Amino acid sequence: MTAQLGDILKDKEQAYTILRRMGEELFRPEAYGLHPVSIHTACRRGYRCTYELRDSVLTLRELLVKDGLGVYPPINGVGIGGRGAASLLSTDFELKPDARPGLPSGPETYKDLDLPISFTGKLLLADDFDFRYYIHMGLQRPHGFRKLYTYSFQDGKLIEITDHCETADLLRELCDQNSDPELPWLRGGAPYDKLPEELRKTIWWL
After folding, report:
1. CB 5 within 8 A of CB 42
2. Which domain holds residue 142?
3. How many domains is the chain partitioned into structurally?
4. Under 8 Å CB-to-CB from 26, ≥6 apart: which residues?
5. Residue pLDDT, tens place only, 20-48
6. Is 175:192 a contact under the CB 8 Å cutoff?
7. CA-CA distance, 86 to 6, in Å (whole number)?
8. Considering 95, 116, 137, which residue would you say is the last residue of a domain?
């Protein structure tokens, strides 16, 4: 499967890719009358969310979605922003209308939603990817990013940030030593066991 575009979380001027989640879904399009279908090979699930922290509160700021029925109801009182409107980081992939007959063109973009997200759990956020560790399927592996953090939430309120940059550095070193970009993902294996115990306790995303 083609590498997939992750959702985005903006914290002030910094935009992170959401790599992993511990807890319930942040946003369910079906709950708002949407029926997503694949946008392109890099967005099979049919939608992409841009979240934002405002005064430490998690909100859905923007939604790029392709509805299988061509119906786009208002969300939080906000309608679509125009057919094919660009979303954050949309230049990663060219978005083209689906030329197959019988399917609606798209996608559509909801902007300035400001929809509160009552999420309790953890998000693994990443930025500054090192393409030496690129994997051509799914989301990229956390250790491939130089910036790596856990943001912990309670009822949508940010309560803690954990820095994993040092852990990612060590995992990349293990990859290089073994000439294998996947090796540190084997929990309980020899490379994983080489990590300091205090760091192993923080790697909840394996």
Report:
1. yes
2. 121-200
3. 2
4. 7, 49, 51, 58, 60, 117, 119
5. 999 999 999 999 999 999 998 888 899 99
6. no
7. 16
8. 116
